[in-house]
Amino acid sequence: MNIQTLIFLENEQYHLSIEERERIQSYVNKKENWLEDGFLNLEGIIAFSNDRNGSMQGMDASDELAPLWQYYTEALDCYLKKDYATFYYPNTPI
Predict the structure, then answer these.
(1) Which of 17, 46, 77, 93 shows a CA-CA span of 20 to 30 A to 61?
(2) CB 48 within 8 A of CB 55
């Protein structure tokens, strides 16, 4: 299982791997509202993939990264305890 966090660069309309720290730092330095009420205000995706089946979650579900990681973590915990889990993307309209 490969898990990647990708930040959405609004000015370039592009998802960038969190591992590219210099480009992300440059983007954050230019973004005026990257921190809002003490919370990280960066959008992106968390992409899950494996060698056998390819992508399990695609690039079309950008959302705020901080709560998105929290939801995935809670879903995994629920799955491990109950053998199922669901959640929604909090800032993506259905």
Answers:
(1) 77
(2) yes
pLDDT in tens, 67-88: 888 888 898 899 999 998 887 7
Please choose, from the candidates 38, 39, 58, 61, the residue with its C-alpha nearest in 3D space to the C-alpha of residue 47: 58
Other C-beta atoms lying within 10 Å of the C-beta of residue 61: 13
CA distances from 66 to 45, 73, 82 (A): 10, 11, 24
pTM beyond 0.85: the answer is: no
DSSP letter assigned to residue 87: -
Q: Residue 28: is its pLDDT beyond 90?
A: no
User: Which residues lie below 8 Å from residue 49, measured CB to CB, with a gap of 6+?
Assistant: 1, 2, 4, 55, 56
Q: Give the SS3 label for residue 35.
A: strand
Residue 33 corresponds to which amino acid? N
Among the listed residues 73, 64, 68, the one whose alpha carbon sits nearest the alpha carbon of residue 88: 68
